[in-house]
């Protein structure tokens, strides 16, 4: 067995599959025995753009899309596309001979998993959601190791070796302190900080409710407020803000921005987070030991965001608000329920801390290495 290891990593379609996969990539790049990492993905997707940031990683393209959910004329077209993607994955497997294969699910990883099964190559999968996806369900029975982020996933996936690791998160989440985060963002150390976010695309519902509350939260209640609008929604949000609250640019208790490339800083700086309920966001919120108000995206596949959010609420770390009920009055009531009750805030933080994993990325990498024959 060679000391130098070659890895195949796959996962794509959405950020919830892609970012955890690249967190594992970052960890593997630091390992002395890593010789080469190949990332298998769709060149039309976000994973291709992210892979460009890692010159040490070679991107291997597969042209694959999500399987149609209903029987239609699209199904034969998809089946042909998938077959050619599978053949491409087989050729990659035979050419580069990976020592270990790791996927975070999503339709992009289906060809490589199918190729691994065909060639009887061991592989490891990680499912990021409380409701495992179709590819994870298909891949789990023959996987050497199945890693999950949520305990509830164990009931759905069939495997003799299933481990709840939590989602992999970047090393900075264990190193950056609240003081360092606030200093970097120029936020006062003595203020309570509320951070509202809707991911890279933003969440119109959250933005609409928040712009009507910014004056109340930052001036009347004297909190520091961060609103991440999403890249595509920033201009519209600022236009609305200029109408509703024209003095907002002079408010030293307020930060309105499109997106944070380093999400660790606004999260670590915060006391309360208002967010959607994607698995990656929840993992980062937990790792920062934060209280949260979750407003799940109502059209997420298999309704997984609602299920994610309800699991968090059942564990006492979050309050729940339906997207359809997210107006300024209801959101303000939820915020006050936490921010006006120091004991409740501390209890929610403590429960989040109890759910946090010591180092899920390190655990996953060690487990991946154990699959090497």
List keywords for this structure.
373 residues; alpha/beta; seven-stranded parallel sheet; six-stranded parallel sheet; 15 helices; globular
Structural description of this entry:
Helices cover 43% and strands 16% of the residues. The protein is an alpha/beta fold. The strands form 2 sheets. Strands 3-2-1-4-5-6-7 form a 7-stranded parallel sheet, with helices on both faces. The protein is globular and about 65 Å long.
Task: Sum this structure up briefly.
With 373 residues, this protein is α/β, with parallel strands linked by helices. It is built from 15 helices and 13 strands.
Helix % is 40-55%
Number of helices: 15
User: Mind summarizing the main beta sheet?
Assistant: 7 strands, parallel
Tell me the radius of gyration: 21 Å
For the residues shown, what is the average pLDDT?
Answer: 92
Q: What's the number of extended β-strand segments?
A: 13
State the low-pLDDT regions, or none.
none
Fraction of residues in β-strands: 15-25%
Task: List strands and helices in order, with pairings.
Elements: E1 5-10, H1 15-29, E2 34-41, H2 46-51, E3 57-61, H3 74-96, E4 100-103, H4 110-118, E5 124-127, H5 134-139, E6 145-148, E7 162-164, H6 172-175, H7 178-185, E8 193-197, H8 204-220, E9 224-228, H9 234-244, E10 254-257, H10 264-269, E11 272-275, H11 279-287, E12 291-294, H12 304-314, E13 318-320, H13 328-339, H14 342-355, H15 360-370
Parallel strand pairs: 1-2, 1-4, 2-3, 4-5, 5-6, 6-7, 8-9, 8-11, 9-10, 11-12, 12-13
Helix pairs in contact: 1-15, 3-4, 8-9, 8-13
